[in-house]
Specification:
Number of strands: 11
Radius of gyration: 22 Å
Bound molecules: 6-O-phosphono-beta-D-fructofuranose
Helix content: 40-55%
Number of helices: 11
Strand order of the largest sheet: 3-2-1-4-5-10-11
Structural class: alpha/beta
Order of helices and strands: EHEHEHEHEHEHEHEHEHEEHH
CATH architecture of the largest domain: 3-Layer(aba) Sandwich
Shape: elongated
Number of domains: 2
Length: 327
């Protein structure tokens, strides 16, 4: 029988994402609801190593549901990748009587959680928190919808000026290894084309899409470029097009960290709240070493090993639709 859990630690790690605070709030309040103590661990795994731990209660998480970023702060810890670092972290947990962890973050966060759980026989549950949406085991990650909405809002604004000057715009969005933001926000903002990392070949039809737009008398053309694509960085792509078509005036906008900020959308708040409660209930039910997601509107549990191994698949149907509509 699983050991009873009395005290739970919660941390956020990796790139912050809107909705992380909503998840922290849900973990703390659900934990208290079931009579468990909940400790906030500051600055991710690094803070665990450095013993930056504080007990939280329902009032400590008031007023954060609507706030972007993470009140617990975040980091990418190199030290936690070492056995020594993880040992220190475990000793800090033991000293405070914390017997389980909820970790909120992306792939690196789940990898850390998996090693930690196996090495020290401690239950760890993972919540998918990243704007990139590149995690297996969930349809959507916490922060993705908010980031897409930021991109759509920015592209709408850029389109106003693009249209006024008949300009071509290259807009870079985040997604080191994945085109989820690019494709979804591209479709929602009427982009002419999206260049994204999952493409196995360099994006050869960019030129034909641009020509198609020009021959259809499009007076503004928006090309979304995901940062990790295989064609090159946004400057190289824009230069290649300029060399070929010097008569087309083009501009470059890099949206960068704007995409990670701001209030979480309703969708992200609901997702984070559901997953936070599920993490606590999962731990109480004896679950461990799993990431929790929502698939087809139902809770889904995926082992950390599986969540890390398999990559979320981009829905290429969105790209097909985008191309039909970008005429
Ligand atoms: O992992 C999320 C992400 O937003 C990526 O899309 C992006 O490449 C990266 O974080 C940027 O990270 P940092 O803020 O550390 O530069």
């Amino acid at each position: 029988m699983a050991k009873e859990i009395n005290s739970i630690g919660v941390l956020t790690s990796g790139g912050d994402a809107p909705g992380m605070n909503a998840a922290i709030r849900a973990v703390v309040r659900a934990g208290n609801h079931y009579g468990k103590k909940v400790h906030g661990i500051y600055e991710g795994y690094q803070g665990l190593i450095e013993n930056q731990i504080l007990e939280l209660n329902a009032r400590s998480v008031k007023g954060i549901l609507n706030r972007g970023g993470t009140i617990l702060k975040s980091s990418r810890s190199e030290e936690f990748k070492t056995t020594e670092g993880r040992k220190k972290a475990f000793q800090n947990l033991q000293a405070r009587g914390i017997d389980a962890l909820v970790v909120i973050g992306g792939n690196g966060t789940f990898t850390g959680g998996m090693y930690f759980s196996e090495e020290f026989d401690i239950p760890v549950m993972g919540l998918p928190g990243t704007i990139d949406n590149d995690l297996a085991g969930t349809d959507f990650t916490i922060g993705f919808d908010s980031a897409c909405n930021v991109v759509v809002d920015c592209v709408d604004k850029i389109r106003d000026t693009a249209e006024s000057h008949n300009r071509l715009f290259f807009i870079e969005v985040m997604g080191r290894d994945s085109g989820f933001i690019g494709l979804r926000a591209g479709l929602a903002s009427g982009a002419l084309d999206v260049v994204f990392p999952e493409e196995t070949q360099p994006h050869e039809d960019l030129i034909s899409e641009l020509e198609r737009g020009a021959s259809n008398n499009k007076t503004n053309r928006i090309i979304i470029v995901s940062e990790g694509n295989k064609m090159g960085n946004i400057y190289e792509i824009a230069e290649m097009v300029r060399e070929r078509y010097p008569q087309w005036e083009s501009k470059i906008t890099i949206l960068g960290h704007l995409q990670r900020g701001g209030a979480p959308t309703c969708t992200d708040r609901v997702l984070a709240s559901r997953l936070g409660v599920a993490a606590i209930e999962g731990l109480i039910d004896g679950r461990r070493g799993e990431a929790i997601g929502i698939v087809d509107n139902k809770l889904a549990y995926t082992s950390f090993a599986e969540a890390i191994r398999s990559k979320a698949k981009l829905d290429m149907e969105l790209n097909r639709i985008l191309k039909i509509l970008a005429s």
